Task: structure prediction
Amino acid sequence: MKTPSWFLKRNIISYMLWPLSLVYIAGHMVIYFSRLFWQKASKRPVICIGGILAGGVGKTPIVKEVAGRLDATIVMRGYKGKSKKEEGRSVKVNKNSAVSEVGDEAKMLSDHGLEVYIGDRAKNIEYLNYTGSPAEHRPIVMDDGFQNPTVKKDISILVFDEKIGIGNGFCLPAGPLREPLWFGLGRANAVIIIKNDNHNQFSTFNFQFSIKKPAFLAKNESLNPGLFGKVIAFAGIGYPQKFFDAVSAMPRVRVIESVSFPDHHEYTKQDILNLFKLAKKHDAELTCTEKDWVKLPENIRKKIKYVPLVTTIEPGFWEWLNEKLENLKK
Result:
């Protein structure tokens, strides 16, 4: 779905929906604590990288960096992937996996050389506990699943985007929060905040002085893939304006029009035809995110450049993470 406008700023709609948020919170708490009875621990360390906002805030690049640095296996839902529906089956993503089968983010991570399993996270972690050498202690990085208590997390890291912050601060459906901020932050071991050029009231100091937990900074850099002149940017991600702003900031690039699609959108032939018609009308080039690019047909990918994203996490985070992992071995 597309992110509702009231998720980012309080207005009459968010206030009207606020009573429903109270019902949602009550239901969430009942479900969360009842599922704790089925919690299982993993033999391999589980690092959960999650969020408490509905929609993407930039977890996937963080997952990619952490898993790559630690040579870890990634487990994730495989959003909209058909294979995840096959209960009890462990599905490993590979170069021949179709996006329609495994999901866009899983395919993207696998294409970067990472080991990725999709489907039921708990069942995949159980499967991975009994594969490989008995002495193997490679961590498992769980993409999202912070609200799922059936898997015991050894380390939980929440990701926020500085520009989005916590949106309007309300829980669903009045706002973007999946759970109350205090409840989520209370269970997290650390926070990563993705920095943007535009600053707002959401800062590392809010975390460090209010909850006394480590807060680390990360920076995303969008690389120009060779774009020049007029550009039509399109994206089907949680908060597409972040991508449009990044392309607009590139030297010698002028974004003529930006086209938003729902998060995890599956592009149809008509979608693609409309995009090329729009590009021809303005004599412009098409560009998108890598997450969108992997969902396009191969012959179309040759005609569209995606914008690579390079993520850097401050050195203090790696020192903190390595220390936490060493402590788990004791």
User: Anything to note?
Assistant: Residues 229 and 253 are 5 Å apart (CA to CA).
